[in-house]
Amino acid sequence: MNADYDLPRPVRRPRRLRRTDAIRRLVRETTLTPDHLVLPVFLIDGENKSEPVDSMPGRCRLSVDLAVKECEQAMELGVRAFDVFPATDASLKTADGKEALNPENLTCRAVRAIKKALPEACCITDIALDPYSSMGHDGLVENGVIVNDETVDILAQMAVLHAEAGADIVSPSDMMDGRVAGLRTALDDEDFTDVGILSYTAKYASAFYGPFREALDSAPVDLPDVPKDKKTYQMDPANSREAIIEAQLDIEEGADILVVKPGLPYLDVIAQLRAATDLPIAAYHVSGEYAMIKAAAKMGWLDDDACMFESLTALARAGADIIFTYAALDYARWWRQSHA
Ligand code: PBG
User: Fold this and answer.
1) Which of 93, 203, 230, 294 is catalytic?
2) CA separation for the pair 125, 174 (Å, rounded)
3) What are phi and psi of 162, to 5 degrees?
4) Could you read off the pLDDT of 77-119 as tens digits, one per residue?
5) What is the best residue among 129, 138, 233 to mutate for testing ligand 1's pocket, by most ligand atoms within 8 Å of CB?
């Protein structure tokens, strides 16, 4: 071996900017603060009730009083936005999902309680029928088909109901065609012109929603004439150009914020939407993404906080302004420690 190679020595050395923590912080391109996080909150009936979600260590279904407490704790940590999801009692679920239109349902009660205790919080509600439907679908099922326009009629009423309860933003997660225009029209007709629409623009028919469906017991049921999956309305994971079409429609129809869901498997879609519009983009780091990291950590195979925070930063780097995450409180605690 000849030790005398006359190797070229680089003039440009990118490692100079990685040498110390102070320099790394100076040149850091993406800084995700708790300001940009949304905490999803699972709700159950009752009082002083907290039921762990087995597949989502650290997350529980909470009765409204405890949900308010969790939101208060989040606000203290700098997380100011919440998205509420009701685990509706099975006895209240029907084929037409009519509990969705009950002004005393879990969602409406939670929104009222959160906004009363924390008027400055941003309360987001999910607009879809699945938590209320005995079929486990986001829309009405007729003869084995999820019917579009009839579903939008109900979703528009839901949006108004949530606005009346005090929701700041409603978020259609159902993927029906024309629902953003439907919601906007209904909200404006009722003078809720200030209530925003955060639209799930590119919501994929993903297997990563499993733990969420366990939390709400909302998976499509196994009955004849009920589709077993959501592929006729949620997007095909193989497609990204279609996400641009969905984005164009949502923008024309009046969406204020566009969401990509799930998160990490769809970074390219986030980046493409970022390039296609100047509207804020949100990414939803979904239940399965959270569960995978927690499960590996339980085995001692991964450091859960480090992997979680890296994932969230990657979503922001790809172009997400807003991130929905079940780790919002952990992130905010870590943020406080490392930026004190
Ligand atoms: C349904 C809805 C789902 C999620 C949010 N809203 C599940 C689904 O489409 O079946 C999933 C969120 C998650 O997995 O964290 N409207």
Assistant:
1) 203
2) 12
3) -70, -35
4) 999 999 999 999 999 999 999 999 999 999 999 999 999 999 9
5) 138
Give the model's confidence band at 1: pLDDT under 50 very low, under 70 low, under 90 confident, else very high: low
131 preceded by a cis bond (ω within 30 of 0): no
Residue identified by tokens 């939803």 is 284
Give the DSSP H or E segment for 51: strand 50-52
Q: Which residues 6+ apart lie within 8 Å of 48 measured at CB?
A: 63, 65, 66
At 84, phi and psi to the nearest 5? -100, 140
Q: How many CB atoms lie within 10 A of CB 134?
A: 18
For the chain, how long is the longest CA-to-CA vector?
82
Q: SS in 3 state form for 134-168?
A: CCCCCCEEECCEEEHHHHHHHHHHHHHHHHHHCCC
Model confidence pLDDT, tens digit, residues 32-79:
999 999 999 999 999 999 999 999 999 999 999 999 999 999 999 999
Cα end-to-end span (Å), the chain: 52
Q: Look up residue 20 and give its DSSP letter.
A: S
In this structure, the residue with its CA closest to atom 11 of ligand 1 is 209
For residue 209, the CA-to-ligand 1 centroid distance in Å is 6
Amino acid at 22: A
Amino acid at 265: P
CB 41 within 8 A of CB 70: yes
Best of 42, 55, 138, 209 for a ligand 1 pocket test (most atoms within 8 Å of beta carbon): 209
